[in-house]
Specification:
The protein has 95 residues and is mostly helical. The protein has one domain: Orthogonal Bundle (Arc Repressor Mutant, subunit A). Helix content is 64%, strand content 9%. The protein has a 3-stranded antiparallel sheet with strand order 1-3-2. Helix 1 crosses helix 2.
């Protein structure tokens, strides 16, 4: 997976997290280790798009929250991925 957008949004779907917690969560649920540069670059882009926002700073860590627009985008992307997976599985069975 080239673009970490869906991974970050999925991580934030169950609650606010700071960067390190997002990295750890993605490692657990996707088996993908994002480097800090990749993560924080993506966080910046997601904030610019309005899909996540920074919330109250706590103990030297900046937590982030998914927005309504981010949740909608995540739902759309998950639906698309579901379709791709179903199509791929069907085609593999037919091959």
């Amino acid at each position: 997976m080239q673009d970490p957008t869906i991974l970050i949004l999925a991580s934030l779907a169950d609650g606010d997290k700071h960067g390190y917690a997002i990295m750890e969560d993605i490692q657990v649920f996707a088996g993908i280790r994002l480097g800090p540069g990749t993560l924080y670059g993506a966080i910046c882009r997601l904030e610019q798009r309005g899909w996540i926002r920074a919330v109250k700073f706590e103990a030297r860590r900046q937590p982030y929250r998914i927005t309504a627009e981010g949740s909608q985008h995540l739902k759309e992307q998950l639906a698309l991925l579901g379709h791709v997976v179903r199509t791929g599985n069907r085609r593999m069975r037919e091959a």
